[in-house]
Specification:
Layout lengths: L2 H4 L14 H10 L1 E4 L1 H5 L6 H13 L4 E2 L2 H47 L6 H25 L12 H10 L9 H17 L5 H7 L5 H16 L3 E5 L7 E4 L2 E5 L1 H11 L3 E5 H11 L6 H8 L5 H54 L7 H55 L8
Parallel strand pairs: 1-2, 1-3, 3-6
Antiparallel strand pairs: 4-5
């Protein structure tokens, strides 16, 4: 560090804060863009409209795209399984939504039977809720139906692969030479053991099977030496051995990686999540990228385990909201019927008092007895309705307690992952 830099409070620390949008736009417009495996596989997880916009972005940077051989290897090994996994996940989530919706409908029907005893407006109220639930279910079904890929259809003819082959022709690295692979493997294991980024977490967990990230990094450095052009790595991998995080927020690439790229190849290095890349590409490259497309790839920026947990929390949150509504309505109904029982009891007491104080010869004795009998019958009905409402309230309270517990378990698990920096917050 020179004297001029050492006297500055900020110069030389640029890697410790998030880059400006102008810097990111410039990197997108001029750097070699290296795509990670999942950044490519996301094309198979998108709806056709989003996929078309993603391809437009790739076509704009076609001359500057570069794919490490390790990425190509991983892509071809996982292409069909990525489609199968995504299709199964969509169906599973759709089935869960339908099951939850049916449970809510059942609860609403039960509540309707009770609530209709109190007033005639509940039918319209519950009908509107049921319509809202139906709209949600139908919307989810449409999302599933709009996904147009099946592994069996891609075995012999894959239009996505055909377009990628044209885009990436002549832009794929040759990989680490066979004569150097043993030394590269040893270096990857050494770095993993010593916690040197990138990819040391995978190495520690999987040994030799976890060296893929280092091989990608090694290829990027070698390519940057040849081209002498800055590197922009677009990836969905936001683990701590690639990205600097603070308070759960991604700041940018690890300073160690920026420094290693600068020393080894003499170029700048930057790392962007796919969603932010597409968002800023719309500006930097002047291509249309909708918010729906960006939203579809945001989930790709977190691990599948975290993504499933996020979805689980969201689902339980919706169910919890529904049970809380049912609980409040049932509590209000119990309160209302308790008030009606009190009124009926007063009416019965007044009728009983009239009968007890009536003269034997009183000509109205028969009418008073009839009134007393009607008041007693009304009281019995109200008491029965109140007991039924209390039973329903107890059932809803038990259901609410179960849902609240399941939501808390999922939420606490998500918070634990967030604390470990496993979640990328996209702004």
């Amino acid at each position: 560090m020179s004297d001029s830099i050492s006297s500055s409070f900020t110069q030389g620390y640029e890697e410790f804060w998030r880059k400006s949008q102008e810097f990111i736009d410039s990197a997108i417009a001029a750097s070699t863009v290296v795509l990670d495996t999942n950044a490519i596989l996301n094309l198979y997880r998108m709806k056709p409209s989003a996929r078309a916009e993603y391809f437009q972005v790739l076509q704009k940077i076609e001359s500057r795209i570069w794919i490490p051989r390790q990425v190509a290897d991983e892509f071809h090994r996982n292409r069909l399984s990525a489609v199968d996994s995504h299709a199964n996940s969509l169906k599973s989530k759709s089935d869960k939504v339908s099951e939850s919706a049916e449970s809510l409908r059942f609860a609403l029907r039960d509540f309707f039977k009770l609530h209709s005893l109190a007033d005639g407006k509940s039918s319209g109220y519950l009908e509107s809720l049921n319509e809202s639930v139906s709209r949600i279910v139908n919307s989810v079904k449409r999302e599933v139906e709009e996904y147009d890929l099946k592994p069996s259809d891609l075995l012999s003819g894959d239009p996505i692969l055909e377009r990628l082959a044209l885009l990436f022709e002549g832009k794929v690295g040759s990989g680490v030479p066979m004569s150097e692979r043993k030394a590269a493997m040893d270096e990857a294991l050494r770095r993993g053991a010593e916690g040197v980024p990138p990819g040391y977490k995978d190495v520690k967990e999987r040994g030799e099977k976890g060296v893929g990230d280092y091989f990608i990094w090694r290829e990027m450095i070698d390519h940057a030496k040849l081209t002498e052009r800055d590197i922009l790595f677009v990836s969905t991998d936001l683990k701590d051995d690639w990205v600097r995080k603070q308070c759960g927020f991604s700041i940018g690439p690890l300073p160690e990686l920026v420094e290693e790229m600068r020393i080894s190849a003499g170029v700048q290095y930057h790392h962007l999540p796919l969603a932010i890349f597409l968002s800023r590409a719309a500006v930097a490259l002047k291509v249309p990228v909708s918010q729906d497309t960006i939203n579809q790839v945001k989930d790709g920026s977190i691990s599948s385990e975290t993504r499933d947990l996020v979805n689980e929390v969201r689902e339980w949150q919706k169910v919890l909201g529904s049970t809380e509504q049912n609980l409040r309505a049932a509590q209000q109904q119990v309160g209302f019927l308790h008030h009606m029982v009190m009124n009926a009891d007063r009416e019965a007491s007044a009728a009983r008092h009239s009968v007890n104080n009536a003269e034997k010869s009183d000509a109205d004795m028969l009418n008073q007895l009839r009134e007393f009998s009607a008041a007693e019958e009304k009281l019995r009905r109200r008491v029965a309705e109140l007991e039924e409402a209390k039973d329903l309230l107890a059932d809803i309270e038990r259901e609410h307690a179960i849902v609240r517990h399941r939501y808390k378990v999922a939420h606490d698990g998500l918070m634990a992952m967030e604390h470990e920096g496993a979640i990328q917050r996209l702004e």
